[in-house]
Amino acid sequence: MNIIFTIASKLLPTRIVYAHCDLPCGVYDPAQARIEAESVMKIMEKYSGFHEEEQKIRAILIKEQRAELVKHHLWVLWTDYFKTEHLKKFPNLHDLFWRATKAAGDTKKSVDPAVGQKLLDLITEITDIFDQTKASK
Amino acid sequence: MLPTLISGDSVLVNRISYWFTLPKINDIVVVKDPRDGKVLIKRIIKIVEKGYFVQGDNKNSSTDSRVFGMIGRQSIIGKVWF
Fold first, then answer.
1. Which residues on chain A are in Cβ contact (under 8 Å) with B82?
2. With contacts defined as CB-CB under 8 Å, which chain A residues touch B62?
């Protein structure tokens, strides 16, 4: 077979085609979003104990970055992992991701741990659905 | 297209096959992504009036008709022979 391909590739035009996978490894896990959200939460809890201006600025900067990472990881799950068949089984999926990414955005504007907890709760809901989709395979 | 094809595999594509016959379910085909024209390799899963539903064999990771919808006959470039 290899000889046929070698000859064919010399005689015929060749080009690269793509299987167009999201990730070659196919590895998805809401844990990525959760870890970043937990960082956001920890910063919120510790923020009131910070007294130096530099410490506060750094905490806010890191919280901003981590919240953005939460959004990124949620979007990857939402747009790449979850498929139409999942939506049929869990019709609240779009709304849940909408609320979770909104909540991630809200954590940028606040240092109130209650806001961070709301984000974590929504990620827990997403994780529950994710686990069910994995279990049904 | 795992496990049927792995990255780096070579395939021979018959570009005139569908001049004489219609695409069939289970055919592995080279198609154009209707969104950006990128050339993809997929399997025909369903044929309806509106077009062809194509899907990758690696269902958990494939971006295919479940994302970009049915494709038209004109988007099928050819049939993978082997």
1. 1
2. 19-22
Contacts of A18 in chain B (CB under 8 A): 38-41
Q: What is the mean pLDDT of residues B43-60?
A: 90
pLDDT in tens, A34-53: 999 999 999 999 999 999 99
Higher pLDDT, A53 or A20: A53
Q: Where are the domains of chain A?
A: 27-135
B73 to chain A, minimum CA–CA distance in Å? 18
Say if A21 is an interface residue toward chain B (CB within 8 Å).
yes
Tally of residues, chain A: 137
Instruction: Supply the pTM of this predicted model.
Output: 0.58
* Total tally of structural domains belonging to chain B: 1
Whether domain A27-135 has CATH 3.40.50.1440: no
- The reply to whether residue B12 touches residue A5, judged by beta carbons under 8 angstroms, is yes
| A127-130 long-range contacts, CB within 8 A, separation 24+ | A127/A30, A127/A31, A127/A34, A129/A86, A129/A90, A129/A93, A129/A96, A130/A28, A130/A29, A130/A30, A130/A77, A130/A81
pLDDT in tens, A67-113: 999 999 999 899 888 988 899 999 999 999 999 999 999 999 999 99
